[in-house]
Write a structure and sequence with these properties.
By secondary structure, this protein is mostly helical. It has two domains: 13-357, no CATH class; 362-426, no CATH class. The chain contains 18 helices and four strands. The protein has helices spanning 13-27, 30-39, 45-67, 79-88, 95-113, 117-124, 127-148, 168-185, 191-206, 240-265, 274-293, 304-309, 315-324, 332-336, 344-355, 366-382, 385-403, 411-425; strands spanning 73-75, 152-155, 159-162, 298-300. Helix 5 (95-113) packs antiparallel against helix 11 (274-293), helix 16 runs antiparallel to helix 17 and helix 17 (385-403) crosses helix 18.
């Protein structure tokens, strides 16, 4: 029988179960948020609710039993927004082709997890550029969130402008944003799902949003989106940068989150920690299955820190979280009735959190300074994580060439700069 070795980790069953519940509340928001974002691509909302929940359960269970760490996993924020707004709405791909990109990048992720190439990708890109990538994705997410809330709207004269803040849905969205910010700053467990629920209840009470047709129901079928990935349509040279962007973003997201949670839990203290490697392998398994299940990559969730703060130290915390995620499968009518203005503020706050990585960047280096500027602004302004990343890589390598220091660091960026020539010019 599997043993979580609670004694070795200085914990007990009660502490682990409470910690698992804390993680569950902290990340429950991902179900309505991911379903709302990905359904913008034309995918059925009901199936996405089930698929998101099932993949959360699956990936978290794999990690709990394989790595014995208190890390929960679910469909990651960032790539889901890029999937809908970058690939489908931006590039005009079908959602089936976008899932094909997910499947191909996931297969590469699994292969790289088993080889030294993953280490090379992580170590060859300067730390400050990794932070800039996180900040750029955060800016892109926040921009999408504000646009969907109609706080920012289209303008023929200036491209974008401030929307009409007196409209009821906009005011409700700003209320959700304020409540979520307040609860997050005060470190209230489950801040996002509480803010979403409070605004939704207010919207129902005031008639701003229609009441749900019910609360409890049987889980919706995943079959409309399962095994629908169109891989053959994306096996072209023009899709290579997009696939690599998915791959690199997934790797950095995984390593960054595991490092952050691990520091708080006292895990992964060794440079080549077996638990860290096993968590990466568990994430690779979840990522590989995600595209076939009809969602974007699973990734470790930083909200796992809520469980760690509550004392969680082993896989029993993650196992508890996974089991609790069975409950949302049976409340589809509630999720369907949540208005979008109660959901998209979460995208803004998560994006703002990622954007704060800029505070740690050393802007004294010219290549870092200018590439960060183009990378962070490039992602929201081009409406593409891929284009922003490639612009940043091109500027970094260009400055290094001017300085005569191109061989110093940034092997991954040099490769990306070659991609710029192929993708933008050829």
């Amino acid at each position: 029988m599997f043993s979580f070795r609670l004694g070795e980790h200085g914990t007990d069953v009660k502490t682990e179960v409470i910690a698992g519940g804390s993680t569950f509340l902290a990340m429950l928001y991902i179900i309505p948020v991911n379903a709302a974002i990905m359904s913008g691509s034309g995918m059925p909302f009901d199936a996405l609710v089930t698929a998101t929940t099932v993949m959360t359960i699956f990936a978290t269970l794999v990690n709990a039993l394989w790595s014995n760490t208190p890390v929960a996993m679910s469909v990651g924020m960032g790539l889901n927004a890029f999937f809908t707004f970058g690939l489908v709405k931006g590039m005009g791909l079908s959602w089936q082709s976008a899932l094909g990109i997910e499947v191909v990048s996931s297969a590469l992720y699994v292969l790289l997890t088993l080889t030294p190439v993953r280490r090379w990708i992580v170590e060859s890109m300067p730390l400050d550029i990794k932070r800039a990538v996180s900040a750029g994705i955060g800016a892109f997410m926040a921009f999408i969130g504000l646009e969907e809330l109609h706080v920012i709207v289209h303008s023929d004269a200036t491209l974008v402008k401030l929307g009409d803040l007196t409209q009821a849905p906009v005011l409700m969205g700003l209320l959700t944003l304020a409540v979520a910010l307040g609860l997050s700053i005060r470190k209230v467990p489950g801040a996002f799902i509480l803010a979403i629920s409070l605004t939704t209840l207010l919207a129902w009470a005031t008639g701003t949003a229609p009441l749900p047709e019910g609360i409890v129901s049987m889980p919706a079928s995943m079959m409309p989106i399962v095994l629908q990935a169109d891989v053959s349509s994306v096996l072209t040279l023009s899709m290579v940068p997009v696939i690599l962007t998915f791959l690199v973003a997934d790797i950095f997201d995984t390593i960054g989150t595991l490092t952050g949670v691990g520091l708080r839990a006292g895990l992964f203290s060794q440079k080549d920690s077996p638990q860290l490697q096993k968590s990466i392998e568990a994430d690779a398994v979840g990522t590989m299955v995600s595209g076939f299940a009809g969602v974007t990559s699973t990734t470790p969730f930083i909200e796992s820190a809520a469980g760690v703060e509550a004392g969680g130290r082993t896989g029993l915390t993650a196992l508890t979280t996974a089991l609790l995620f069975v409950l949302p499968l049976f409340v589809l009518p509630f999720f369907k009735a949540i208005p979008s203005f109660a959901i998209y503020p979460v995208l803004v706050i998560v994006g703002a959190g990622m954007f704060s990585e800029l505070r740690s960047i050393d802007f004294g280096d010219a290549a870092t300074r200018y590439s960060t500027f183009f990378l962070v602004l490039g992602m929201p302004l081009t409406y593409s994580i891929t284009d922003g990343l490639l612009l940043g890589a091109m500027v970094f390598v260009t400055v290094r060439l001017i300085e005569g220091r191109v061989r110093e660091n940034g092997g991954m960026l040099l490769l990306a700069a070659v991609g710029v020539v192929l993708f933008f010019f050829l």
